[in-house]
Amino acid sequence: MLIGEVARRSGVSARMLRHYDALGLVRPTGRTEGGYREYSGEDIQRIFHIESLRSLGLSLREVGRALDESGFTPSELVADLIRRTRERIAAETELLTRLRRIGAAEPAGWEDVLQIIALLQGLGSESAGRRQRAALSSVGEVSVPVEALVEAALSETDPNVAGALRWALAQSGDGGLALLAQGLGSPAAEVRKRAVQSIAEIPDGAATALLRDALTNADLVVRRYAALALGGRGVADAVPTLVDMIVDGANDADAADALSALAHDPALADQIATRLVHRLGDGAIEPSARRRLTQALADVPGTTTSRALADLSHDEDRAVALTATYILKLRDAR
């Protein structure tokens, strides 16, 4: 069979068949009297074998080894092909993500495209300073898509950069809340923590709703950050967790401040005082926890607090009694 007919039947161009011949991959078995290449049935079968192996991503050199080396085993080469394919897919996926983000930013011209690319590269830089500058520059006339900000915020380990990213997310509105909510369910504790911290800085009703839900999160750290944020927003649901934080000595000063802010609402003051007093009466808690609870009463107004402090001024724990007495004097002096 002559080269033209082989090309038609195999789908391999005559030029490529000549290239195979030059490389020694497929040498035609015969020649016609006129000197034209003449392929046998075995030659054509080898051509199909070559094309099959090329479809797996093998180079022509690797194809030649596979077909001609008697001791060749495919396992190592196939493993290498799998690795290369995964790397190629990862690179293509990264490119697709970048293109989608550029499209989402709706650039008006190529200058905008270049600026967005620079910001995205900045967010992914190994330099913390460059990441921070990119975060602070990401909100403006040409802004980074919120998806990129969320991804960066959930993976950032530098506290200064993380703060800049949370600020940028807060400026961008509630567009990233759905993605941050997914972060709350991450299997990685650090990602869950970063997610709730980011949500806490978004001054939005939808963010407050997410923080309320986070009070029942299985992660104790998430619950505590949510409670602190909700306390500052005047949400009474945070009170039980805040009191528990004081008992546990976990960010207890911040928890007491949050309770104090909530206690400015007269309707909540007695509720907070009652819960603090109830925990003070728990004989199972440590003396240090009772002292923290007593200190927390200092900024809670109302008669319930005053009566509790009067009783505590005679407490068996001298430190508790002295703290209560001091607080009462301060309250009387106001």
Automatic annotation (TrEMBL):
Classification via Pfam families: HEAT_2, MerR_1
Organism: Sphaerisporangium krabiense
This protein's name: DNA-binding transcriptional MerR regulator
Gene3D superfamilies on file: 1.10.1660.10, Leucine-rich Repeat Variant (1.25.10.10)
Family annotation (PANTHER family): HTH MERR-TYPE DOMAIN-CONTAINING PROTEIN, REDOX-CYCLING DRUG-SENSING TRANSCRIPTIONAL ACTIVATOR SOXR
Keywords of the record: DNA-binding
Entry keyword annotation includes Magnesium: no
Domain HTH merR-type: 1-69
GO molecular function, one term: DNA binding
InterPro entries attached to this UniProt entry: ARM-like (IPR011989), ARM-type_fold (IPR016024), DNA-bd_dom_put_sf (IPR009061), MerR-type_HTH_dom (IPR000551), MerR_fam (IPR047057), PBS_lyase_HEAT (IPR004155)
DNA-binding keyword on record: yes
